[in-house]
Each structure stands twice: as C-alpha cells, then as structure tokens.
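Practice problem: predict the structure.
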Amino acid sequence: MTITLEQLEQVLVSAYPGASHPVLPRAVAVQRAQWLYGDLQAWRFDLRLTYQPIEFDGCEPMRVPKYRLADSPFNASKGPDDRKKGEDHEMFHGEGSGLDCPDLLKLSRVSEIDHTILAHTNWPRTHAKALRDLRKHVAVIEELLWLGRWRNPVAVRLNAKLVPGSAKDVDCCFRSEGITINLEVKYRPRTWLARVDGGFDVQDLSSLFDGVDGKFPIEPPQGTYNVVALTVLAPIDNLLRRHAAQFLDSHPEVAAVAVWTDHAPNGRNHEFISRPDGPARLLECLFKSDEEERSRAGFIRHPMRNTAERRELTPEESIRLVQRMAAEEN
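Answer:
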C-alpha cells in the first residue's frame, strides 16, 4: 500500500491540521488507524492520501485529509470520450467531497463500524470488490455510515430479502432501542448540481427513488418501519421535501424518508420526512449525530466556472422551472 500504519495514525490523530482541536480523541484515532490499515489490506485498496486546504478569513489554514479516486467518473481530468455512452456529461464536471475525493475520516468511521456493529459478519471481504470499483466506492461507504447513525443497532442483517419470491433486497435490517428498521440507502451524487446552482428547483428529481419498488413488505409487523435513506450533496430544501412527500403518497409501505447532507449551512445535516401521522419524531429519537459527523468539510467545485457563477439553464430545465413557478402561483 502507498500509506503506512504510522502515517495513517498520524493523519487521524492530527485531523484536521490547523483546526482548533482534533476531531477524534487520540485513543480512538489510533484504534481506527489499526482497524483501517487491516481493512485496506483485506480490500486490496491502494489508498492515495491527499489534503484539501481550506482557508477562512482571520484564521489559520486548515487541511482536510482526503483520498483520491483516480478512476472515478467525476475525475476532472476525464473528457467526454472517457465516459460511458449515454451518460450526462454535465453531471461529471464537478470534483470534490462525495465525488472524486472522499473524506478519510468517513472511511475510518466505516472501518470502526465494521469492527464493532458488524463484528459478527465478514463485511470487509464480502464488499471488497465493490469498494475497489471506484464507481461504487462512495455508495458502499454511505450505506455503512447510515447504519452507524442509529442508537445501539443490534441484530443487523445486510442485504436482507424481505419480500417472499422477490430477488430484491434492502441494504440492512436492524433493531434500535427495540424498534426494527428496514433501511434502503440511496446515494445520489447527481445532486451536487443543486449545490452549485443554488437549489433543487431546476433539477429533475424523478430518479431520486429509483430502485426502491419491490424491496419492502407491504404490511410490515407492528414496531417495524420501512425507511428510505437519501445521501445528497446539497442543502435540504422545500422542493426535495415535497418530492419525498409525493414518493410517500405513492408508496404506503414506506414509513419515512431520511435525508443526510454534509453541506448544511444552517447546521442541520439530516431530516426525517413522513406523513402527518408518521414516525418522523420517533425515528428522530433513535438517530444520533455527533461532532465528528457535523465537522466534516465537504467542498465541491466546478473547474469550468467560478464558484459564484451559475450555469445557464438547459431548455428542459427552463420548462420545468416555469411549470413549477406556475403551479406554485395557482
């Protein structure tokens, strides 16, 4: 591997260089480094460390440890000829957190989850192929991060088939404080466009919930909730909430939509969306978000334009925007 155990320990103990205090207690950082180093060997994953410099007015520069996914579809050096036929090229013009440069602390947290919550499984080896596939790597990481955000998850089953006769499965099932959660995670990197362009208002959100149909039982037992979890790369806004509500209206078997973003200017990283009589408040009580999660710096840039420059709308986006504005007026 490119990185040694000693280097990994130093990176996690000091994260973030330039910050007022470390994110992790030293003992936690050292333990995570040992776990992660072993997992990287099990995955046969060659980690290429880099740092993302962040500067604030009047403050010392801060460096955030990241690692590059050189063959990610979001790699800025790639041109249209390097991508698969039919892909939306505009989607791949960005770079940064959640795209081609994930956060090393996230990866270390996944390793901690693997060695604690999933200690009874063979997760590193069963998911090694997907982790080495740099088009799937971040999605696999997000699935485990979602599992680690609940209070005291036990009886965890991964890739559980819940519908008799169906080949489809959900990412995980578990119990939290006596409540059973069937959780399907959807990582949506396309949403970085809403972050750069100022909101979801011009985006086609119809694909947010693709792949969910047929995964959940229509009538789960009492005390069991089917939840769809979304990881997005832009702030949670009202249009995203409305689209989630529409999805719930058409999918009565789903109790709630949970949304997570690392980009939360108002400090609110997550939100539960359910029907008026739904379990949003109960699920909120089962959820935990700590300082490490809130401290993540997830910056994205578009190499073709300035940070404050908004691209011109495509004809399809212009039509959707006009239709939405007309509907809101009526």
